[in-house]
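Researcher: Quick one. two chains, 852 residues in total.
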Amino acid sequence: MSGVPAVQVSIESSCEKQVQEVALDGTETYVPPLSMSQNLAKLAERIDFGQGSDSEGDEAPAEPRDRDWLKQEPEEEEGTVKFQPSLWPWDSVRNNLRSALTEMCVLYDVLSVVKVKRYMALDPVSQDPSAGKSPQVFQLMSKKKSLATAAQLLLKGAEKLNKSVAENLENRRQRDFNSELLRLRSQWKLRKVGDKILGDLSYRSAGSLFPHQGTFEVIKNTDIDLDKKIPEDYCPLDVQIPSDLEGSAYLKVSIQKQAPDIGDLGTVNLFRRQPKTKAGTQPWHVKLEAAQNVLLCKEIFAQLSREAVQIKSQIPHIVVKNQIISQPFPGLQLSISLCHSTGDKKPVKGSPERPRPDDHLYVLEHNLHQLMREFHKQRLSSVVMPHPASAPFGHKRMRLAGPQAYDKAEISSLQQTQGLLEKIIKQAKHIFLRSRTARTIDSLASHIEDPQIQAHWSNINDVYESSVKVLITSQGYEQICKSIQLQLNIGVEQIRVVHRDGRVVTLSHQEQELQDFLLSQMSQHQVHAVQQLAKVMGWHVLSFSNHVGLGPVESIGNASAITVASANGEYAISVRNGPESGCKVLVQFPRSQNKDQPKSEVVQDTKWTHLRGAYKEVHWSKMEGRNFVYKMELLMAALTPCP
Amino acid sequence: MEAPPVSVMPVTGGSINMMEYLLQGSVLDQALESLLHRLRGLCDNMEPETFTDHELVYLLKGQQGNPFILRARHSLSHLAAPWHLRYLGQPEVGDKSRHALVRNCLDVSASHSLPDVLNEMGFRMDHEFVANGHVFRRGALKVVVSKLSRVLVPGNTENTERLSLSYLVELSVLAPAGQDTVSEDMRSFAEQLKPLVHLEKIDPSKQRH
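Model:
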């Protein structure tokens, strides 16, 4: 027993007072104990007043009895009432009790008499049926009333529901401020500053370095009159954009012949109509997009003008107001201008130039935007992030420059040397060169019919390089005479021509050079065609030269010549074709056909008359035939005697 | 032959005299996800970049009291990237109102033979650790959230032990000397991270015991 820990026993005295109520915080309210007078009254209730006060000496002390009068014996009614004239405090109580007892006895008597039914009998009272209202009508009236009350309640409830549904519809139609704000936030960056909601429409988080803040403010549109009909394009949300980004802007790039005077530079004010907004876009979205576009155009133009001023080039660029002018080729002018209209001003009437449809180089404008965005992206590329993390930001190849001991040439090749302006000028040069080449080839093709010139432009081009395949053929003899096939690679400033036989010629940007070259190739083609034709016709090629050194000097290229002999050797055709001098065809006849040759005394044998002798020129223009090769074929056929 | 004219004046300006502005704080592991989420929203829009670096701290004890400290760091995830050597000067005792810790900073890229060179020059490695985590940028601001681990066996970076249950958050900018607007930008950025992490300037000299 010593190891067992002692058990604690709590003893509590039993409640002397009864608990009336336990409050929520645990306090108990006890029934207040009876005071002295209340206690006395309680005891007095138990006193039996059937016993008189003068019988207190003889009778036994009054016993406390139950108060159930109904069970009392009729003996009580025989108890005499002893009236005490003296006023003692219980007098009235006693009188009241006595009268109550009398009443109860009477009632008891009546009930017992009724029960026995010997002396008295009870009969029900018959009711007059005509007296009072009929029960059906009464019921109808009461039913009507109750139904009316119920109907009224239901109507009240229905009215309330109707009102709330109508309110909901109103709200949805009004597209309340918060849901619009949510939609705005899903597309644009917003933040709360104090009690204002500001947003950011700049490209800074996308990598731009432009110092413009680009913050816009979101305003609640409260000037709406709820009583009047709400207009269709009502929007509870409005945005306030910075004042210098209002309206819309675009960049215009165009190439023109150099203007003779520079008096009206910077007055480019051509503006096209605003594009229609798509149905369903919110007005704030349109506004913000336009402002963002203005910001991007400003950034591009600022970058271009900065480069135009800083970069040294042979012909300096001119920056005037909202226009940058540079000279890609002599006699040509490239102008890049920022056209910004705030929208509220009326368009300036009487602009000096009519807007020509092909004035805009839309491709270059699009490229400007793309180059800027590429620059942004490049600033954010993961190539810039440092590994290890404590290294400063910078291109990862530049970080290798030190450890790998790059020299100056390698470092300069890593760094971007070309700015936006240079790139755009290069692209403009290429576009211009390409269009001029196409124009040259097309004009030659339309003017010259005899050798036909075909150009097949390749679909896939670079911004700085395009290529075209030029074929010079004769109509009807394409399969035979296909020796002149040129591949032209049009670069930024030069055109590189690759001949079929492997020769590479580099032409400058001059239009005349290309034209002269193509003309010389055409004349060479004719002579090549004769060579191929001779093979087909069975004639032998005696001599062939692409560049003859005899005869008049050509100003464009060189003349080429060929001599072919017939199969039996009797006839020979000599052709000399030059780009400028045209073609000259001579036929060599056998001596026997030469009537006016004097008979020689030395050469007697008749076999020598079969040799070829004098030449005769052919009136080529009078020859029958559609083109040169056809004529040549006819000539050859004519000189081949049928067996 | 004459020696070519060489300037003997010390090089100033350019990228030589850069100051590092620094704010530091820390978050518990449980709060990391929400912090990364927040940083992704606040910083530039790029793919999140993780890193694993191994840093060695070298000391050169001279006759005077303060040893010369150099930090050599290389990436364990990008093994071809060069080593990075860093010197951090004493924090500038400027006016107390400056919000960030400013100290002179010199960053040099080095080849993979850096530890050998430092050893040969007389530096001794004091301690090393492995840091891995995430890097964010916002303009010129760099936010590095890293978990530091102790290297148990010197030279073996596989066997590491985490030093604490929290991540170290550092906000730093490298700028030429004299630009005080940088610390304003840093403070406003730190305000935006306020309930998640408290970034403040912690003087390293007060940490030493």
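Residues 96 and 201 of chain B are 11 Å apart (CA to CA).
Researcher: Thanks, that's what I needed.
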